[in-house]
Queue: 3 jobs
Job 1
Amino acid sequence: MREKKLKEETELFFAYLRQNGLKKTNQKDLILEIFLNTEGHLSVEDLYALVKKRDKKIGIVTVFRTLKSLTACGIAREIALGDGLTRFEHSYHHPHHHHIVCAECHKVIEFVSPELERVQDEIVRNYHFRPLRHRLQIYGICADCREHRPVPEARGYDSEKVFARDALKMAMRMKTRAIEFYRSAAARNQDAAGRAILENIVKVQEKHLADLRSDLDDLMEKGKGLEGAPMFLHFDLRELEDMIPEASSLETGQALKLGPKAVLELAQKLAQKASDYFKNFADKFHETQGRRVFIRFAEEEIGNYQKVSARADEPQSASHPN
Amino acid sequence: MREKKLKEETELFFAYLRQNGLKKTNQKDLILEIFLNTEGHLSVEDLYALVKKRDKKIGIVTVFRTLKSLTACGIAREIALGDGLTRFEHSYHHPHHHHIVCAECHKVIEFVSPELERVQDEIVRNYHFRPLRHRLQIYGICADCREHRPVPEARGYDSEKVFARDALKMAMRMKTRAIEFYRSAAARNQDAAGRAILENIVKVQEKHLADLRSDLDDLMEKGKGLEGAPMFLHFDLRELEDMIPEASSLETGQALKLGPKAVLELAQKLAQKASDYFKNFADKFHETQGRRVFIRFAEEEIGNYQKVSARADEPQSASHPN
DNA sequence: ATGAGTGCAAATACTTTGCATGACT
DNA sequence: AGTCATGCAAAGTATTTGCACTCAT
């Protein structure tokens, strides 16, 4: 897994060198290797120190020059955390994000917030700018420092995996809410045929939720230490809640009576909404594991609806199949 | 006006010097004066060039040192716009804000967005950080550059005044929406006494709107060139719209019948909501003209309600007073 | 008169450039 | 063989510090 990724990035670098008539050297190889195997936010000096351990006679200028190439081909990304040093972080398959820096212990939290991006986009458009890029740094005091707890040793997480973890968690939360909605709607529905479809939807959704959970378990299994990683994808629960209504909102004073057609329409609308939402989410990110989670989820939502809809078209008797 | 502000800032600087056992010199005076009279985002070199015009033998070190003092006492604020230079902008009575920078012509738009701040606050809290400060820089291409229009000469606006202008505009927009709401509610209301109160509310609100407009006119009169200044306070219309409902939402299928008591309750709720919203807004800013607009508006909302409410308590016949 | 302020030059910190030598294709 | 890369030293940029002299309190 890790090896595969390293290889991909190495390939990318060599391709970049080839395309620009640049030469492959041991120094570049070593600098790339050490950069890729070190998570976190390295200054040139930091990386130089690490590189020097393996090759005493390498010069810091070469580190500067190599980092410039790595930035140009998208493997590294320059960041400024406010201490006057240019720092570098992994860029390849690592989504754009922002930083919260503890002013005391200099711990750095990385996060991405689609809501924040949305608000920014609106503002930029309002001023008739075409947005190119943006940077947000937030400085604060972390809970550990505030409570005078010992500062935990800095850990670099694989943000690719953390992002995938959070994407799965987000999908699961949406699924859980949808299940609650359909279950409650089924219980309230006075129309027997409509109720049967709602119950079928609940089953399909539960299967989907179980699949998501098993994906998450696999991921956590493979990526040891992932449990400790802070949330990377900051998702706004209110957006989810807005998307899937309370089942009680279906009732308009009278008893709920949703026939098969109404139920299918409702289910299609919700599936489409969720699918669009996740597709839109995916568009915000470049090729990453988290993005793939979103795309798959969007497709599965539509697939789930089709399953339910196909089943509803079967003869009425088919309420206990197989 | 301008002189008064300059004097205030000068006083503040001298007080700072006194309190720190530092000495007043011609060089410091000159640097302060030129800084205060120059809007925009000055680098040390920029300011040095301006200062040198007036005093050939001043040294750049003195500019560095004086800017440090000005920053310490809150007259100047360091900013980084991504070009590697430390730039300085006015800080005294100038609210915290963010920057949108055109990557082509380097035009800078300053803006503040309460919604953005809210989202950020939520995120920071979510990671258990106590927020200290944050910086957001957005890079993009401005409309002028995109359409290959000549770049208008850079203009420095007095952001204190621009902020006040936008605060007034925001208040007026809210007021306009409220008037629409009450007018429409009056037209729909079948209850005569309730309608009379609604009509009175409309009158009071129209008076308030006229006052706001006259404040805005005064401001624009005094601050020539303010028309051209881009919006500084970026307010989200949806928040306003959420706050004041559509009058049609009052109807629940049947004809609208709101008695005096119901109308007063409604008016009080809305006035309180608007007042709280603006108070909360004001809390986000340090002592500025814009902040005072918010506070005054918040108080006037409550005052308006009291006027309406007192009037409603008069004998019923009092529908054509004086 | 005391002590901070000033302006010069020198130092510092980070980064880039020039150049002779060495390494890749 | 030719060209790019490397590592050294040197230069560059933004800012700070040391110091002798000046000026404000």
Note: The longest helix of chain A spans residues 192-222.
Job 2
Amino acid sequence: MVSITNAAPRASARTRGNSRGEGTRAKLLDAALQAFASHGFHGTATRDIAAAAHMSPAAVYVHYRTKEDLLFELSLRGHLAAQEVVEAAATSASSPDVQLRAIARDHTTWHARYNTLARVVQYEMAALAPEHAKQVASIRRAIETRVRDIISTGTSSGLFRVPNPSMAALAVLSLGIDVARWYREGRGWSAQDIGDQYAELALRLVGYQN
Amino acid sequence: MVSITNAAPRASARTRGNSRGEGTRAKLLDAALQAFASHGFHGTATRDIAAAAHMSPAAVYVHYRTKEDLLFELSLRGHLAAQEVVEAAATSASSPDVQLRAIARDHTTWHARYNTLARVVQYEMAALAPEHAKQVASIRRAIETRVRDIISTGTSSGLFRVPNPSMAALAVLSLGIDVARWYREGRGWSAQDIGDQYAELALRLVGYQN
DNA sequence: GTCTATAGTTCGATAGAC
DNA sequence: GTCTATCGAACTATAGAC
């Protein structure tokens, strides 16, 4: 099972001792994740989330104030996890070509491996409350800026040949993001295969000569 | 205003003389298009579609049997329009490099220019009735096959260097499709600019040396 | 913290007058 | 073909017992 906890390990450790309460929240998040990914936020009833978590409809509201709160926690965790993946890849090297290869590979692999969470992250932003939408939008901008800066650096040093670093960054991220739209586990290539191949495509995009 | 009629010109000419009846259907389609693109199929009430078309909630059902029928007509028209764009570009030349450049350019430009329709087409497939989903899925497969065959031909002749034509075709289409997710009219580059630049990116993807 | 029961609202779709 | 009025179902969220 694809757990939301696996997708966002930074939220796993807890100071509070009640492990059962946290398990209940995780079960609700998992249920909401699968439902939102399958039918969308507005196409999902809280009753169905509760049923999938083996709880009564009312029990949901002990742990989350509204249905939108469930979406926001999923969206925030997903955005932070994606940012972490990009940040770790960027930090793993200092040369733009190695950095970009790692980013494209890991960003793409993440969107394949966690395609259900990624679809919620990418397609349900309009259902977030305005304040919540602002929060995740700032994470999105940070990711784009990180990739653009690396491409710009590589272009300035002559390592890449890119007419428009902003557009190239957008294109590289688009490649990875759109994988979540069509990838399904167990059909065709593995998430790792796609990540490896897309990394090479990304380097081609920026005119890297290897 | 971005009209659905503009987006799918093949449905404009009519044999029946009642231009007012057709105008009403077009108004409903336009209203549904904007609403579905903004809030999703399940996030849209038929009352809101009716209001945007300056009609009563009941009047919708004179022209469309169900809300899903509205979505299906939008989805079908959108898929057919996208296919037509790809087909026209493919037929416009016989050399794979010219064909692929035209496809990537026009496919991308279409997803930018008609980004509202494209988002409905790409993100609301799960809301279609099973029989309707099958119909549009076959169009999607035809588009993918068309692009893959051109890339395969170019690879066999040594014009392209592609390890995996299927994945390259998916990547080229992904680039265009994902533009609909972030592009908004009047902000940043024009649809044509993006199409032109993405066409060059697509040729880089397939290892074309110009 | 879980449950049953339900309040209060909104939904898709229909009835029937004109 | 349009309207007003409304049906019956489904929805989010809450009340109150245990």
Note: Residues 45-47, 57-58, 60-61, 65-67 of chain A lie near DNA strand D (CB under 10 Å from a C1').
Job 3
Amino acid sequence: MKQILWSGADFSLSQTLESGQCFRFEKDAGTGAYTAFAGDRAGVFMQEGPDVFLCKGRVEDIPFWRQYFDLERDYGTLKERLAAGDAVMAEAVSFAPGIHLLRQEFFETLISFILSQNNHIPRIRGLAARLCAEYGKEMGGWSAFPTPEELARADEASLRRLGCGFRAVYLVDAVKKVCAGGYAAEELERLGTEELRARFMEIKGVGRKVADCVMLFSLGRYEVFPADVWIRRVMEAAYFGGEPLSLRALQETAAARFGKDAGFAQQYLFHYGRMKKIGK
DNA sequence: GCCCAGGTATAAA
DNA sequence: TTTATACATGGG
């Protein structure tokens, strides 16, 4: 099977899947194909130039995957707007011009990014996989991401046994709050960014970083775009190649960008500075 | 075996 | 308000 999913510029399957937005995908080293999992769906995708193909999966899921990869949005214009008059963003955009913001299911994104704290990507992926295997619906060779109700069967002790560590109590609190209501898609859509962030941060273990990641990688809130994926790309660009950007330059740009929230930006960049050993 | 991670809660300054 | 630590665990 080889169904065309999309054809157009400004989209890179690999850049998008490997930009740290999602934790359930696999790359076939031989063919370069990616298997992506989202909720209880799975698909195998390949990209040849501007053409993206669904190579394995359900044809009726094609509209879902188009939405998931945010393929119908004009990223040319979006990127221009983001990079205008901003050297750091311009650098980020040219470093990874094919990144799209995923529209992942809300609960899966929330749980994944709670798992992400003080953790590295290979281990986050391992944890997510174990969570699916233990509590998600068996799909024949793989497991769906558990629903809030399914994950409500888990208590702190069993989550710790899975290896969640101190994040176990955070997961329990998140599941409890989501099951209690107030997190339906229509309700979240009604809230502005600030209200949404405050709502998420009521959950134990959800700080600004996780809240923003959920808004970015699930809810399409572009206004918080610079706070995560692009900044990370900039840091990688600064660390791995090209003209090195000083931490000071990044901080100044971030302070300008975040305005009143410069403190957060500093803290945020401090972490990345430490992580990537940039600056002093 | 050691190091450390797509942070956050909490204490201390 | 800002800055420093503890945290659980296992992938690399």
Note: The radius of gyration of chain A is 19 Å.
